[in-house]
Amino acid sequence: MNAPDPVLIVGGGIAGLSAALGVAPTPVLVLSRAQGVKGAASAMAQGGIAAAIGEGDHPADHARDTCVAGSHHNDLAMVDILTQSAVDAVHWLEQQGVVFDRDAEGRLQLGREGGHDRSRIVHAGGDATGAKVMQALVAAARSAPHIQRRADVDVDGLVLRDGRVCGVCLLEADGTRSVVHGRAVILATGGIGGLFAQTSNPADADGSGLALAIQAGAAARDLEFVQFHPTALAIPGVHSLPLVTEALRGAGARLLDEVGNSLMDGVHPLADLAPRDVVARRVWRACREGGAWLDAHMLGASFPKQFPTVFQACMARGIDPRVQPIPVTPAAHFHMGGVATDAEGRTSLPGLYAVGEVACNGVHGANRLASNSLLEGVVCGRRLGQLLRDMPPAEAAESHYQVLRRKPSLDAASLLHLRDLMMQTMGPVRSGAAMHAALADCAAMDGWQGTLAQMMLQAAIARQQSLGAHYRVD
Ligand SMILES: Cc1cc2nc3c(=O)[nH]c(=O)nc-3n(C[C@H](O)[C@H](O)[C@H](O)COP(=O)(O)OP(=O)(O)OC[C@H]3O[C@@H](n4cnc5c(N)ncnc54)[C@H](O)[C@@H]3O)c2cc1C
């Protein structure tokens, strides 16, 4: 049996588990769609975690890069919290058992990624940082007596009593429905990449938590800001694409067009390491004009050791990246927008909290700086856990509760159509006319994904100037 009246956490990625560990000793129930790390974007993260931990680096420099990448749409107080807590977050992860890569002298190896003015990214297992971090957090959660986990459940509704969120509705694989009550509900359900035809995200990152919160009346913000990763491995017809980490460009790899010319020279002073939105737009255009490739042959024999995940993904498709350029395409990668929260993770609905990619506290502005989101999961997850640690159990209430379930899902064909529509109209390059047409199309759809897409389109239509990842040709 679960401990009575736990804090309920929907999502077992880095944000959900950091919150769960931070709540100790208050009982927690973590709910997720799949066992262990399956279905969590966190386990797929490659580049690593940004922290001003190197010699001569300073949180203020990290903060400056965060705001430049975010087109200064960032919440400055949140940026300070994130960048000043980063070194502590790395040490906390080490205490949980994460072994970050070090050089022969025992110094942390620091990678470099787009938008950073220096090498600042700690990583583990080369490009397997997410997997290593999640292994450690899952193990820590398993041995924490205050944490219970329940997997293979879809949370498809929120329970409210007197306007306060006090539980969730569960749908099991066999169709069984039930309600679980808690003293607070944390949404940590990740992003929305699954709503686009090409994504680096797992299919589970379909925005269901965001849809639930909006349907219950919670405020959302910045929904128009979607980051596209410039370099997913281009595999025609595949929805969830393997990522070709930006750290490769940090290590010297270069983007080329079909005849071998540099794609980024002359486009931005940082060339191949320009902010993601700039690179993604260039690659998007190149893909329409004949294709885009990442040339990483200069890494030679060190490729498999430095980037084992990318190496395996390429070799599995018959591409040897030591000698052949890698075909790449932009893919929906990260949602800067989400359920609006304050710096602690409170949403506008009492009893409902949000953390990680589903939340929007404004830290990423209009475009996230590379390797700031695992960091956000840890920093904000722990902060929220500590906030809820002292929350008393809910008093036995007289009044009845209200159940707000999500609308049914779109059928398979409509979902495919929606994903194509989102990729073409809400992709790296947008226009008012195309978005208006897509809005009408989505309004005719029945499922909850259509409603969420409409809200994102409305936000993008309303923002008439280009900003960060939101780029309008009109
Ligand atoms: C390929 C890839 C590489 C990346 N590389 C980096 C990197 O190097 N550095 C970096 O900082 N960021 C990186 N990111 C981004 C980062 O990984 C994510 O933003 C972050 O992990 C999100 O964490 P999260 O805990 O919010 O969500 P997730 O890790 O996605 O976890 C979401 C959880 O919610 C559950 N869930 C969702 N909906 C429901 C529902 N309705 N009911 C029940 N459970 C539900 C899922 O099962 C899952 O357990 C990368 C992302 C990808 C996809």
UniProtKB/TrEMBL annotation:
Catalytic activity: L-aspartate + O2 = iminosuccinate + H2O2
Superkingdom of source: Bacteria
Pfam families the record matches: FAD_binding_2
Location(s) in or outside the cell: Cytoplasm
Chief place where the protein resides: cytoplasm
Sample GO molecular function, one term: L-aspartate oxidase activity
EC number from the UniProt entry: 1.4.3.16
Domain FAD-dependent oxidoreductase 2 FAD-binding: 7-374
Cofactor(s) listed: FAD
Pathway info: Cofactor biosynthesis; NAD(+) biosynthesis; iminoaspartate from L-aspartate (oxidase route): step 1/1
Record flagged with keyword Metal-binding: no
Keywords of the record: FAD, Flavoprotein, Oxidoreductase, Pyridine nucleotide biosynthesis
Entries under InterPro entries matching the protein: FAD-dep_OxRdtase_2_FAD-bd, FAD/NAD-bd_sf, Fum_R/Succ_DH_flav-like_C_sf, NadB, Succ_DH/fumarate_Rdtase_cat_sf
UniProt record similarity statement: Belongs to the FAD-dependent oxidoreductase 2 family. NadB subfamily.
Function: Catalyzes the oxidation of L-aspartate to iminoaspartate.
UniProt protein name: L-aspartate oxidase
Organism from which the protein derives: Thermomonas beijingensis
Lineage summary: Bacteria, Pseudomonadati, Pseudomonadota, Gammaproteobacteria, Lysobacterales
